[in-house]
Predict the structure.
Amino acid sequence: MNTKQQKDMEKIKLVTDIIVIGGGYTGLKAASQLSESGYKVILAQPEDESTEKTHFPLLGCPVETMDTLKALENKIQANNKIEILSGASLINATGMPGDFTLRFSSKGKLVKKRAGAVVIASDLSITPLNQIYGLKASSNVLSLSEFESLMADASQRKATLSGGKTVAFLVGFAQEGNPLLMKRVLNSVSELVGMNDCSAYVYVNNIKVADDGLERLYKQCRDSGAIYFKLQQAPSITQE
């Protein structure tokens, strides 16, 4: 019995370009790193995301400045391996890994791009979660962003925390936490326990320390007096 072998072969050309969707720090950083790895990158920057709106405490890196962001932006613009598609709004995406087709609306024009991979690199948004815990915003109930602002203002920090205060941090109960959020919390805890007569309680669901130096920071805060409570559900809290 003879077996007829199929000799016809279909050649599939894979697209190696990568589309990064995101106009803030995250998108710029992703595009830069992919380009450095040898890929041609199309950076699609949505209208509602701009570098000016980047919130640096969100990055967990208090040392970051707008100058750092502008330097990265200039580096991207000078990189001939990165095509910038500004004011881009994604209309639809079809295809499969290795051959995607994306259609954007960019400054009133329809733009079609092909890519082998798509990276969604939008910056995170900040939303206060006090209501989920049954708490109303007040002088002693602050969002993490508000607390970071307070700690960054020397006069406000002294007026609010002088004489010693105990601050409780709630992390990962209203929604699942992440290392980025944990870094922001631990940076705040580190500053707080470094002040005279101030102490910190950290009520946390899962301690996410999967980032460079984050586990070390967690241990430093603990050794400096911060007390951690790892719980399966949020503690009961009263407004007073």
Notes: Strands lie at 18-21, 41-45, 82-86, 88-96, 99-106, 109-115, 117-120, 166-171, 199-204, 227-230.
